[in-house]
Amino acid sequence: FRDKSENNDVAGVVTGLAWTSVGGDILFIESILSKGKGTLSITGNLGTVMKESATIALQYIKSNAEEFGINPEILEKYNVHIHVPEGATPKDGPSAGITMLTSLVSSYTQRKVKNKLAMTGEITLRGKVLPVGGIKEKILAAKRANIKEIILCKDNEKDILEIKESYLKGLTFNYVTDMKQVIELALTKQKVTNAKKLI
Amino acid sequence: FRDKSENNDVAGVVTGLAWTSVGGDILFIESILSKGKGTLSITGNLGTVMKESATIALQYIKSNAEEFGINPEILEKYNVHIHVPEGATPKDGPSAGITMLTSLVSSYTQRKVKNKLAMTGEITLRGKVLPVGGIKEKILAAKRANIKEIILCKDNEKDILEIKESYLKGLTFNYVTDMKQVIELALTKQKVTNAKKLI
Amino acid sequence: FRDKSENNDVAGVVTGLAWTSVGGDILFIESILSKGKGTLSITGNLGTVMKESATIALQYIKSNAEEFGINPEILEKYNVHIHVPEGATPKDGPSAGITMLTSLVSSYTQRKVKNKLAMTGEITLRGKVLPVGGIKEKILAAKRANIKEIILCKDNEKDILEIKESYLKGLTFNYVTDMKQVIELALTKQKVTNAKKLI
Amino acid sequence: FRDKSENNDVAGVVTGLAWTSVGGDILFIESILSKGKGTLSITGNLGTVMKESATIALQYIKSNAEEFGINPEILEKYNVHIHVPEGATPKDGPSAGITMLTSLVSSYTQRKVKNKLAMTGEITLRGKVLPVGGIKEKILAAKRANIKEIILCKDNEKDILEIKESYLKGLTFNYVTDMKQVIELALTKQKVTNAKKLI
Amino acid sequence: FRDKSENNDVAGVVTGLAWTSVGGDILFIESILSKGKGTLSITGNLGTVMKESATIALQYIKSNAEEFGINPEILEKYNVHIHVPEGATPKDGPSAGITMLTSLVSSYTQRKVKNKLAMTGEITLRGKVLPVGGIKEKILAAKRANIKEIILCKDNEKDILEIKESYLKGLTFNYVTDMKQVIELALTKQKVTNAKKLI
Amino acid sequence: FRDKSENNDVAGVVTGLAWTSVGGDILFIESILSKGKGTLSITGNLGTVMKESATIALQYIKSNAEEFGINPEILEKYNVHIHVPEGATPKDGPSAGITMLTSLVSSYTQRKVKNKLAMTGEITLRGKVLPVGGIKEKILAAKRANIKEIILCKDNEKDILEIKESYLKGLTFNYVTDMKQVIELALTKQKVTNAKKLI
Ligand SMILES: [Ca+2]
Ligand SMILES: [Ca+2]
Ligand SMILES: [Ca+2]
Ligand SMILES: [Ca+2]
Ligand SMILES: [Ca+2]
Ligand SMILES: [Ca+2]
Ligand SMILES: [Ca+2]
Ligand SMILES: [Ca+2]
Ligand SMILES: [Ca+2]
Ligand SMILES: [Ca+2]
Ligand SMILES: [Ca+2]
Ligand SMILES: [Ca+2]
User: Fold this and answer.
1) Residue from E198, E190, E192 nearest E11 by CA
2) DSSP symbols for chain B
3) Which of D19, D50, D52, D59 to mutate to test the interface with C (most CBs of C within 10 A)?
4) Gap from D7 CA to chain C (nearest CA, Å)
5) How far is the CA of F105 from the centre of ligand 12 (A)?
6) Is the pLDDT of residue D77 over 60?
7) How does DSSP assign F87-154, residue by residue?
8) Is domain F13-186 classified as CATH 3.30.230.10?
9) Which residues of E lie inside 8 Å of F (Cβ-Cβ)?
10) What is the pLDDT of residues C12-35, one digit of tens each?
């Protein structure tokens, strides 16, 4: 199944771009909170590197909670679960890093994700966004899925410049170097309808 | 052994549809509560993806307890065990997701499952139901097992339209997009006879 | 070594029927309690599915303690260990389910197991007994071991009807559909001599 | 290296008989207590089945402490570690069961093990001793190692009767059916010199 | 992607030198603290030996906290996470030991790492720095990445002497034998801008 | 790299003798204490049997603390970490047993290890030292590394007698049967300079 962009009325659901053996595709990163002790769990038929991305994102958030406007008590009193549909497809690699970060910050703040936005990029503990591969295939998949705006690492700009211009029509690109730029670009100031009341 | 639909006097027992190397079959998802600390355990010779479905279902319920009419204290004070007979058959895949969700909600509320109903569909943390494969074989198995009503993802409607009409006689189809629709369709308002008194 | 039926003066020891590459055999399921926190441990060179049977049996007992006349406090304050001799033989499969259930109920109640009785059948969380394979070989092994009475799933009756009558002489068959019938048939009202004083 | 019988001045050291690819040998089972919470650990390059024997022995002792003259509080307040030299040799199988049982009872009671005694036999949770293989090779190894007395399962008596009589000169055989007989035969009433003061 | 030296305004980010199948490269070791109980977690698609380096570094720091000017309470009340980008590349070996040590000490003290510095060397619990392989390839990679100063084990000096002098122009070498020398050379007295307030 | 004997001013560092595919070598066993709950951790690219040696050594020390002059409270209130450089070399086998025992006792007592001493021998829970293989290669490596004194199992004396006398010049041999002899021979009465103040 080829996925389509979805509306953005649920906190924690962010669109990523994946590069698979059969070409590019979009994927959704979903996260959800429940009362607990701050543990992280993760599902979605994921390989080790992709699971590590979730850990890196959460560790970065824990160490920089205030800058993301997150009450540190929420991090301690809620468990978070991350899921990446679709279970039948094995997934791996570091490129969902910024998508996971965005999903988590949206869940912890209940802020709305910007509409028709997709992203791809590796994250680091020092807050940098790193470039990833498969950019051309990912961009074509984004267009097919009705995406209008894309967040990429600044170092991936050269990959976009190599794509025929006609393919890029209707897409806006945001090039970032820093994880905080991602959050500023990806999350609106608004909370989602029916925002969860945390703590 | 080919299974048959069963009566619905036990909470937590829900009929799913499976697609195996030897064709379609029905399977039962069973869940049961016991006093504890809210842990989830699972048996039935299941692969990783199918085990993940149980985790996703429980996480979704924990985050949306009130909407399912579940007292959150029950989630914290009872362990839940999910089993999928028959132990000799290895099982995997995401398609039992909505069946597991329904089983858990039935156990936590002690509400009766609708009679002669079967279902198949993947679940997501954002509450969507996703389409699954093997629809034709699953439908034939449902008929053989005396099932009368089926819940499927809206995106699987096209697979039903490709099946010869005569095969579908006597079956009612419910197409859903949302996990809450599944529960409304699958559980009656009635509690099971001898409902467990929780808390 | 070919095993023989044993006397029944120890709680928790129940005779099962196994189907191996060299034909049928009887096996013993043994369980024992010790003060603790309600944990389950298991030994006997067992495969995953056979270990899962022990978990299913214990979960069912925990959820239905009162119906088996078990004080729920005993389940919380005693650890239970299940062993299946003989360690040199790898064993697997779901067919020891009812034997494990009977062993556990005998240990928790200290009720005596009926003499010269053997059984085979898969268990489910909804309390049903499911049919199993290898019935002919198992019955022949039971006779060799001096067993007089056998508990089987009702759905295995057809397998017995296919066996030459002369082979069945001296054996009584009990066909069951429900796990509670197993316990009624398998355990006497009497406690074992030197019954352990629990709590 | 071919091992020799050792003196018996240390609690918890018991001589077993092993059957390896290069013939029979004696081996030592050693156990030792340290203050803790009743956990069991085990070393010696052992396979799963041999490790399970240690679990079975300890579970049996926990359930029958009083009959072995063991203060149950000692079981809860001391950790026990079992080691089987020599680390370079992988070892497996259930036949060290009675040797492990004897080692543990000696450690928990600080009773002296009988001098120049060796043993081999599988144990069960119901207290029975089961027969084991490789008897001829084990007996020859015992003689070479200067052993004078041997404990075997009653069902292994037939294996001894098949050995040429001259090979058996100087050896006394004790055939047992029950784990309590093993302890009566193997442990003296005396404590070891420098017995550890427990609790 | 070929990495470049980065500015040093984030605590816990240290440049190491790696030797891969496609030649030398620089890599970054990143560490970050968050409130917790002193646990260590680690990501970056790392093999066992490289993970062990992180454990050794932390154990050494725990045992020598005062000499590194670290308040032991910080070690107990903060979790530390180490990450080694880039997730798509598997990494292993002991040579990042001194880089990990430096990263951890920087995080625990919030001291600034010296600019345009890289290092490679194995660490030991007794505080020694051990020599490592691939020195020539690592040095060439350091030059390409605009590194100006390098820390190496004294025993690797001979490897530098074998490199053509022109390749070494613009590089300063510091040869060490002791882990405390590494910290003195690598960390400035200054704290990073926006130093985290610990405890 | 060929290692050399080191000075002995750090507690817990002891020289062992290893036998590898490329001949004999010396290796160092290092241990270090940090405040904690008495846990043991171990690194150095070690196989199962070598890790087991560390467990055996610690269990023996816990059970015989007073005889080694160790305050039992130190065992409960400090974690101990054992490391065996060099991480790039996989290591296994039981022959580092006495070296690990000596390292641990040195760390727990802060007593100085004798200078230019090396050792090799397997340990047991009953306190015996067992013989090991590769003696000739190990002795030659010890000479090359400037070792002057060696501790071996009494049963390895025959292996020394087979070595050409000229090879042995300058080496003193201590043959032991008992783990307590090892400690008496290996540790001086003196504490190391800068001995850690424990508790
Ligand atoms: Ca897709
Ligand atoms: Ca992505
Ligand atoms: Ca079936
Ligand atoms: Ca299904
Ligand atoms: Ca048998
Ligand atoms: Ca059975
Ligand atoms: Ca031997
Ligand atoms: Ca034995
Ligand atoms: Ca790179
Ligand atoms: Ca490095
Ligand atoms: Ca070396
Ligand atoms: Ca050694």
Assistant:
1) E192
2) ---------STTEEEEEEEETTEEEEEEEEEEEEESSS-EEEESSB-HHHHHHHHHHHHHHHHTTGGGT--HHHHHHEEEEEE-S-TTS-B-SSTTHHHHHHHHHHHHH-EEEPTTEEE--EE-TTSBEE--S-HHHHHHHHHHTT--EEEEEGGGHHHHHTS-HHHHTT-EEEEESBHHHHHHHHEEEEEPTT-----
3) D59
4) 31
5) 16
6) yes
7) TTS-B-SSTTHHHHHHHHHHHHH-EEEPTTEEE--EE-TTSBEE--S-HHHHHHHHHHTT--EEEEEG
8) yes
9) 48-49, 52-53, 55-56, 59-60, 62-63, 72, 76, 93-94, 97, 122, 124-127, 130-131, 133, 155
10) 999 999 998 888 999 999 999 999
Q: Are A68 and A182 in contact, with CB atoms under 8 Å apart?
A: no
Q: Which fold has domain E13-184?
A: Ribosomal Protein S5; domain 2 (3.30.230)
Contacts of F61 (CB under 8 A, 6+ apart): F68, F70, F75, F101, F104, F105, F108
pLDDT recorded at residue A9: 87
Share above pLDDT 90 across residues of chain E, in percent, rounded to a whole number: 93
Chains that touch C (3 or more CB pairs under 8 A): B, D
Q: Which of E10, E34, E44 sits opposite A59 (nearest CB)?
A: E34
Report the gap between the CA of E181 and the closest CA in chain F (Å).
Answer: 17
Which pLDDT score is estimated for E2?
A: 56
Class of CATH domain C13-189: alpha beta
Contacts of E196 in chain A (CB under 8 A): 63
Quick one: how far is CA E121 from the chain centroid? 9
Q: Which tokens is D159 given?
A: 């294996």
What's the gap between Cα E60 and its chain centre?
14
The beta-carbon neighbor of B126 closest among A30, A45, A196 is A30
Chain E partners within 8 Å of F196 (Cβ): 63
Which residues of E form the catalytic set? 95, 138
